[in-house]
Specification:
CATH superfamily of the largest domain: P-loop containing nucleotide triphosphate hydrolases
Mean pLDDT: 87
Shape: elongated
Number of helices: 12
CATH class of the largest domain: Alpha Beta
Helix content: 40-55%
Number of domains: 2
Largest sheet: 5 strands, parallel
Radius of gyration: 22 Å
Distance between the termini: 28 Å
Low-confidence stretches: none
Structural class: alpha/beta
Number of strands: 5
CATH topology of the largest domain: Rossmann fold
CATH architecture of the largest domain: 3-Layer(aba) Sandwich
């Protein structure tokens, strides 16, 4: 067992990514966001979801996956947004279980036909989750609105969820992308954690690992929150480093001096 797990009597790594969808922690603001996303997809809408790096976009997507009934919705997740248009649609074909063709036009037709077949046979409603959408090539972005156009633009047979960094929303406002933007019914923004969220998150993660006391002192949590900038990714990294540092010092409660040293060490050139 890792030293800090044994020292703090933890059954698992408290800040590991390996968490089941049903066990994901979400603050009230993100829970309401998931509810709104479910409402949008239930209404067969397409949406865009933006936020800064590390604020929990993937956690929200995983919670969305858990919330949507598997018998009514078929989710296809793509995170490789740097592909060209043909390879992008080839990836969608494979994810849908369709056979990709040789040309871009044939591949697009295969995807569109598969979506229409699913609707005709009253199978699960297809939902495409496109992560890292800010990295999409412009030629792919130019074409996405066509994927949402069925039967003379009279039926919503597919829901598209575009997920990206905050500046992706600015890109969608460009005149060239207006056709796509007009088909995205709702826009959602994920905000950073509040100080209260950070406190609740730490308690939740430690409880999941079998520890039901406050490992971090209150003022240490304040410093930790400020250093992480309200992002889950940095919070996980710094909190784990603090656990290791406290173990070396034989300190059962992590005070502000330990957090400050960890932050200083993580920002030094040697740690880069």
């Amino acid at each position: 067992m890792t030293a800090h797990l044994e020292f703090f009597a933890l059954s698992i790594e408290p800040f590991s990514k390996e968490v089941e969808d049903k066990d994901l922690w979400l603050p009230p603001s993100k829970k309401s966001l998931v509810d709104e996303l479910v409402d949008a997809i239930e209404a067969r809408e397409s949406v865009v979801l933006t936020g800064e790096p590390g604020v929990g976009k993937t956690c929200v997507l995983r919670a969305l996956r858990h919330a949507l009934p598997a018998d009514r919705f078929r989710l296809t997740y793509s995170h490789n947004a740097t592909l060209g248009r043909r390879d992008f649609y080839r990836q969608l074909c494979l994810a849908l279980g369709a056979s990709p063709s040789a040309t871009a036009a044939a591949i697009f037709h295969a995807v569109a036909q598969h979506v229409e077949d699913m609707a005709r046979e009253r199978r699960a409603h297809p939902v495409f989750l496109l992560d890292e959408a800010h990295l999409l090539h412009q030629d792919t972005l130019d074409h996405l609105h066509i994927l949402l156009n069925y039967e003379w633009d009279s039926k919503a047979l597919l829901s598209l969820v575009l997920v990206g960094l905050s500046d992706f929303d600015d890109r969608l406002r460009v005149r060239r992308n207006r056709s796509l933007a007009s088909r995205l019914h709702r826009r959602f923004v994920i905000d950073p954690l509040t100080p209260e969220d950070t406190t609740d998150y730490l308690r939740s993660r430690f409880a999941r690992a079998g520890c039901n006391r406050d490992v971090f002192a209150a003022d240490a949590v304040t410093i930790l929150h400020e250093a992480a900038g309200g992002t889950l990714r940095d919070l996980d990294r710094l909190a784990t480093s603090c656990l290791r540092a406290a173990t070396r010092k034989k300190r059962k409660t992590i005070e502000r001096d330990i957090v400050s040293r960890v932050i200083k060490a993580s920002s030094s050139p040697e740690s880069a």
